[in-house]
Design a protein that fits this description.
There is one protein chain. Helix 2 packs across helix 3 and helix 3 packs across helix 6. The strands form 2 sheets. Strands 1-2-3-6-7-8-9-10 form an 8-stranded mixed sheet, with helices on both faces. The chain has 2 domains: 242 residues, Alpha/Beta hydrolase fold, catalytic domain (Rossmann fold, 3-Layer(aba) Sandwich); 35 residues, no CATH class. The chain is globular and about 60 Å long. The termini are far apart. By secondary structure, the chain is an alpha/beta fold. It holds the Pfam family Lipase_3. One of its GO terms (biological process) is lipid metabolic process.
């Protein structure tokens, strides 16, 4: 398994952060002017951003929990069976449902600037099929956007924060089954548990998935049902200026609570003072 480089981590983290505001300039991140397509859910909210440039990589960013309805989705934590060609497993109903919500093509009719205009992807959302495509799901819309890009030789990186991370791994597994080896990597931030043991066992991208957790981010311990939901891929835990790899949830929880209890004393350590040396250059 390849290591995740610091510049890669920073890039995908910034893209996840930038996916929340309405204002978003994809060209600031090195993507082509025309290399940006938005996928909205039934409520008209931007659910996914697909971006590409001259490089052979397409980046798919899933927006995380933001609105009240998103938070309610987190509570729909009972597992549901999903069956696809070559796979049958149980996953979190709420996060799975986010990919199955309709993404009406009619939403794009009033925003032609959001439609891909390059010859390469002119087939993504043909206007003459608007009525026929009205009830295509969010995931199916994503597949429509990616198909010509994959045919052009590009590979896909999927990323997302919170519930967006859960959507990313669910979509990545389905894409890998349809387009083998075309998923380059999956990087999630603060992602909750998404699938049961059956999903973990059948997930195809363990060696290309990085799950980033930060300190005692409580969402990464959810849903609070021990033994029901299992994480996939390689876990990288950022804690006390170190990166811990694939430690158990129990170890992470105990160490986080211990650090929290010891925090007032830890600030007395000389290391804390030395690490603040750069402050004097700005004083």
């Amino acid at each position: 398994m390849k290591k995740l480089k610091s510049y890669q981590y920073e890039r995908y983290a910034l893209l996840c952060q930038a996916s929340y505001p309405t204002d978003f300039d994809h060209t600031a991140y090195g993507f082509n002017t025309e290399g940006h397509c938005l996928i909205r859910d039934l409520s008209g909210q931007v659910s996914i951003r697909v971006m590409w440039g001259e490089k052979r990589e397409v980046v798919v960013v899933f927006r995380g929990t933001y609105h009240l309805t998103d938070w309610l989705t987190n509570l729909a934590l009972f597992p549901v069976k999903r069956t696809y060609p070559g796979a049958s497993y149980r996953v979190h109903w709420g996060y799975s449902r986010l990919l199955e919500l309709p993404s009406p093509l009619a939403k794009y009719a009033t925003e032609p600037s959001l439609l891909p205009t390059t010859p390469l992807v002119s087939q993504i959302m043909p206007r003459d099929h608007a009525e026929k495509e009205r009830n295509v799901s969010v995931y199916e819309r994503l597949q429509q956007v990616l198909e010509p890009l994959i045919a052009d030789g590009k590979r896909i990186t999927l990323t997302g924060h919170s519930s967006g991370g859960s959507m990313a791994i669910l979509a990545a597994d389905r894409l890998e089954r349809r387009y083998p080896t075309k998923v380059k990597r999956v990087i999630t931030f603060g992602q909750p548990g998404t699938g049961t043991w059956s999903f973990k066992k059948q997930y195809l991208l363990h060696k290309r998935t990085y799950r980033i957790c930060c300190d005692i981010d409580i969402v990464t311990f959810l849903p609070p049902i021990p033994g029901l939901y299992w994480h996939v891929g390689r876990m990288l835990w950022l804690h006390n200026d170190k990166i811990y790899e694939n430690v158990s949830e129990h170890f992470r929880l105990v160490k986080s609570l211990t650090s929290w209890l010891m925090m007032p004393i830890s600030y007395h350590d000389m290391g804390k003072y030395i690490r603040r040396k750069d402050f004097f250059d700005k004083h």
